[in-house]
Automatic annotation (TrEMBL):
This is Iron complex transport system substrate-binding protein. Belongs to the bacterial solute-binding protein 8 family. It comes from Maledivibacter halophilus. It comes from the Bacteria. Pfam families: Peripla_BP_2. Keywords: Signal. Residues 76-343 form the Fe/B12 periplasmic-binding domain. InterPro entries: ABC_Transporter_SBP (IPR050902), ABC_transptr_periplasmic_BD (IPR002491). Residues 1-21 form the signal peptide.
Length: 344
């Protein structure tokens, strides 16, 4: 009996020691885990600290070159107009957007869940509404900083609020594809999302390169990008526009190089093979998709044009050819399908 109790005591002591040892191991693992978490947080903070302050080149309403400096990642952003909103959504910083307005079209499907989380102003945003949001950054077009809207950027800078005006919104003499790349990359820097921004730009460039490959060894396709106004007049997107620049970079022949008004008679004389007709719905001068097509197809003076005869009047969103941002990819794809239907 005494031997039995001795064995029992030994077993109990062994069990106790094992339990204590397990507790110590768990405590050690917890300490290591907590240290790893703290280290990861410190690394992330260190990366952010090393990224800022950051200075970015942009413009004033008067088209002057200015620099804005970011001491940290923006936390309260107002984004107005299609490419401004969608570029931020593409970069994954929707949590920083406190107010948005000015869409020409519904946001792209892949951004709808993120867009649903932000405060969107259907009727636009007044200066007073923007001020009430206390933003630390406003991203928009040149026109939004006009006297009747937000006013010159100095007003906001004096209040510690940074501004960024998109390059192709009227602050430069030329509206080029490269400026869309610049905006995406600049905003990537502002939000410390440079890798994602570079990926977006690289993918667009790869798609653009396909156009030159498709065109090689062939007569260039004659093309126009037109905006059909409600009064029946036409505006051409020339080589100094994103739309016109895209036509050229995709290996086609932009038959009218100058931007501006163009008559039906001149269109008929030039006889383009493909016409991309621009539509949009946000503004008072909006042209809906079906109207953008019918205004050309039903025009008596254009019945002899190859693009009309061969059913090559193709709708394209304004957001794909003007201040296009991440929608530049959609514009490229729309044009490749229209210019090279057999190859693309």
């Amino acid at each position: 009996m005494r031997r039995f109790f001795s064995i029992l005591i030994v077993i109990c002591i062994a069990f106790y020691m094992s339990a204590c040892s397990s507790d110590e191991v768990l405590k050690e693992k917890k300490v290591v885990s907590e240290k790893n978490t703290e280290t990861s947080a410190e690394c992330a903070k260190g990366e952010a600290d090393s990224h800022y302050p950051l200075t970015i080149a942009t413009y004033s309403f008067q088209k002057e070159n200015i620099d804005v400096t970011f001491k940290e990642k923006p936390k309260k952003v107002v984004a107005v107009y299609q490419n401004c909103i969608e570029t931020l959504l593409a970069l994954g910083v929707e949590d920083t957007i406190v107010g948005a307005a000015g869409l020409d079209h519904d946001v792209k499907d892949e951004y709808k869940d993120a867009f649903a989380t932000i405060n969107y102003y259907e009727n636009g945003m007044t200066k007073e509404e923007v001020m009430a949001l206390e933003p630390d950054l406003i991203v928009s077009w040149k026109s939004y900083f006009g006297e009747k809207k937000l006013g010159e950027v100095d007003f906001w800078h004096d209040r510690g609020i940074n501004t960024y005006i998109m390059n192709n919104s009227g602050v430069r003499g030329d509206r080029k594809l490269e400026h869309e790349y610049t905006d995406i990359l600049n905003l990537g820097k502002v939000f410390n999302k440079e890798e994602k921004a570079q990926q977006i730009v690289d993918e667009i460039k790869a798609e653009v390169a396909k156009g030159k490959a498709f065109a090689k060894g062939k007569d260039p396709v004659k093309a126009l990008v037109l905006q059909c106004r409600k009064d029946g007049t036409f505006r051409n997107y020339g080589k100094d526009s994103v739309g016109g620049d895209l036509i050229t970079k995709l290996g086609a022949d932009l038959v009218v190089k100058e931007s501006g008004n163009i008559t039906a008679e001149k269109i008929a004389l030039l006889n383009p093979d493909v016409i991309f007709t621009v539509y949009y719905s946000y503004y008072e001068t909006s042209v809906e998709r079906d109207d953008a097509i019918s205004n050309l197809k039903d025009h008596k003076g254009l019945r002899s044009v190859n693009a009309i005869i061969n059913d090559k009047v193709l709708p394209i969103r304004l957001g794909e050819v003007y201040c296009s941002g991440v929608r530049t990819m959609d514009g490229v794809k729309t044009m490749l399908k229209g210019l090279y239907p057999d190859e693309y």
